[in-house]
Amino acid sequence: MKVVSFPTSSKPYLSYSSPELKRFQLPLLHQCSLSVSLVKGSEQPLLRRLTQKQSCIKVVCYQKKEVAILEARSMDEIYDTLAERLVPTAAAASNPELKYIVGLTGPPGAGKSTLASEVVKRVKKLWPQKASSFDSQVTPPDVATVLPMDGFHLYRSQLDSMEDPKEAHARRGAPWTFSPQLLLKCLQKLRSEGSVYAPSFDHGVGDPVEDDIFVSIHHKVVIVEGNYLFLEDTVWKDISLIFDEKWFIDVDIDTAMKRVLNRHISAAGKPPNVAQWRIDYNDRPNAELVMTSKKFADLVIKSIDF
């Protein structure tokens, strides 16, 4: 099969990868109307026009699963594209209480928190322009929110009660230092009841703050962000099934670790040697584990250095 490529410009674009079709790229246009279908036995994609009410990019392929890859020349372009992707889907829901829940993951230092907050900000801005005709009950400030996984850290007192407290504190941030059971319960309640109180995490104190985040019944888009949301193990797998869409921020681990190192030194005030030890002993192993879950994403977002 030929590799069919589309010229790229300054606009963001999606590329799809598969064993037979190594990669092709599709420009993401604000009014885009391109459909690409791969037909078994054919070497060329079939192109057709879509109406504006249909999906911007539609790929139908005989392979079991295709993973879309979003790339752009700046993170701002990526934020804009993701927001424009979310608003029509969330706004089209006939039930005003229905949530569109996105799982966002990636290794430490990938930029998850920044991406989530920037996309939410843009969704709020776009909502009155593109969604007012769908749902007049929702006011612009209340349509989207972020739910971080950080609030589901185990308390320090719980780490103290473990078999090896020193190791538990040294590895804080690893999957087993969280409570996925509580996160699952929180997301299930959000799905069934439409609103929920969730804990935040106080980095100054080093512990969760209960009921500090409120996801309202009027929030249409909820971005849940954290490291381990797509893991296959135990409760994490049940968590991943909650999401309507799964995004993975893809970044070179060395680049991510440089960002985390700077965070340890500048934000946490750790001496450089202590910060580097933390990277080698905890952050990098965690990042390598997270990278194994990229294959479960619906959309892979290529991070750009910032």
Q: Kindly state the percentage of residues in helix.
A: 25-40%
Lateral arrangement of strands in the main beta sheet: 2-1-6-13-12-7-11-8
Globular, elongated, flat, extended or rod-shaped: what is the shape?
Answer: globular
Low-confidence stretches: 1-10, 16-64
Number of H/I helices:
8
- The N- and C-terminal alpha carbons lie at a distance of 37 Å
Q: Beta fraction of the residues?
A: 15-25%
Which series of helices and strands comes N to C? EEEEEEHEHEHHHEEEHEHHE
Which structural class matches the secondary elements?
alpha/beta
Rg over alpha carbons: 20 Å
Average pLDDT across residues? 81
Major sheet characteristics: 8 strands, mixed
Give the tally of β-strands.
13
